[in-house]
Amino acid sequence: MTATTSMLPSAIDGIVCLSPDVWGEVKRPQQLMTRLAARRPVIYVEPAASFASLARHPVRELSSGRARWLRAIGGHAEQLAPGVHVVTPLAAVPAHHRGALAVGGLQAAEERFARNSLEQRVRDAIAKLGLRAPALWVSEPTALDGLDAFAHTLVYDCVDRWTDFPGPVTDGSWRERVVRDEERLLSAADVVFCSADGLYASKADVAHGKVSLLRNAADVAHFAPAERSKPRDIASLPGPVVGYIGAIAEWVDLALVRDAARLRPGWSFVLVGPAFSGAISGDSSELALLDGVGNVHLMGPRPYEDVPAYLEAFDAAIIPFKLNGLTEDTNPIKLYEYLAAGKPVISTPLPEAMSVDGVLIADTAEALVAQVQAALSETDPDAVERRCATAARNSWEVRAQDAWAVLSGEAVVRPSELGSALVDEFAQTAGTHDGYTDVQVLPAPRQLRTGRWAS
Asked: Class of the 220-391 domain?
């Protein structure tokens, strides 16, 4: 489809991204922003550095988080990637613990302090870069409070069904706030990106004509097969190695992993990632399910630069997620990273995993073991190449290109138009724009608004 001309790219002169992730965790916001920065300058706003966290974990905060604290105390934006300027606000306590300050009237004072810190740092960064019409990119419904004045164009990047996280499920007032803030955000946003079909379907009725599907992706070059040396802590394990990379939180079905490991005591099941527990991220009793299962190995978190070596050491990669409201609308980043490494992927029947060609599906421990065995017995010499090719069509470069096409008013990406045949068709007729290859899917239904978000 031929590219359309829009005046909007010249109007948007930067992006302010309110990220739920600390810079360096290298999740969706950082992946997209480092690539969109080739188009326009990006101000990447981290979660606030909190004095409560510093008091509770001083060694951790001042070792791995030293640079964050220097930015937070200094109040300056630091350029950490080409075109990306990172801002770190200050807060007394982390945002998800502020409810504990309600007694004594301290919550309102803390929220004012945190909001003022956030607003001042963003304002200073905008002034330093000389931005006059930035897009404001928001990933969490409750994160926008106080920053609507900066929104020349408002973007809501919806990546989760927020009402199914533990906090909103167990706390009625929190749930009401999430629902209220998301409805308001959907109504006010100029652009809504959704990372999964289910999210797209649920938001399209509310945000008419503004919703585009923008799935997750992989840093393909980072994870591509490269004959890396096996990490020492995995090299000594008996094979085959069945691996998982990612957070070990309430959505991971550790009972499934346990039962599969018991069925194959000669295999090594390796889980690489932080193990969370508590009201926000999981139940500590879940980890106890793995007690006494000697062939399940919790490796803990690893730096992003080291993850490809672990993944390359796997014989098969798994996504053992529970099936519930939260995971129903999850598009796992690890799915694309596994494919980028050329590994066979076995997942529980998540809708987003079932839509990807070549992903093996298992809903029981017996089925999981059988699918891993089928992957280990693979004889197709082109299987690895096909998986890598699938990942290449789902790279962060492609996603950033699609996001910019929407922001520029050139295209809107619909779920029904993401098949590989359509991608190939559009690629054959694509033009170029600012150094990128643009794949236009549909003309945008309207020009994007440029007004601020009104209360």
From this structure: alpha beta
CA pair distance 288, 291, nearest whole angstrom? 5
Tokens, residue 262:
């018991």
| Delimiting residues of CATH 3.40.50.2000 domain(s) in the chain | 220-391
How many Å separate Cα 345 from the centre of its chain?
19
Q: Is 424 helix (H, G, I), strand (E, B) or coil?
A: helix
H helix runs in 37-144, sequence order: 51-56, 58-63, 66-74, 106-129
**CA-based angle 66:24:189, to the nearest 5?**
115
User: How far separated are the first and last CA of the chain, in Å rounded?
Assistant: 38
Task: Examine the pLDDT at 255 and tell me if it is beyond 50.
Answer: yes
Strand, helix or coil at 277?
Answer: coil
Residue 157's nearest CA partner among 113, 213, 202, 104 is: 213
Residue 57 DSSP class: S
Per-residue pLDDT at 236: 93
* Higher local confidence (pLDDT), 1 or 174: 174
Q: What is the CATH number assigned to the segment(s) 8-213?
A: 3.40.50.11010
pLDDT above 50 for 326 = yes
- Interval 277-296 mean pLDDT: 74
What pTM did the predictor assign?
A: 0.84
Tokens 């890396």 correspond to what residue?
Answer: 228
| Strand duo 431-433 + 436-438: pairing | antiparallel
Neighbours of 350 (CB within 10 A): 23
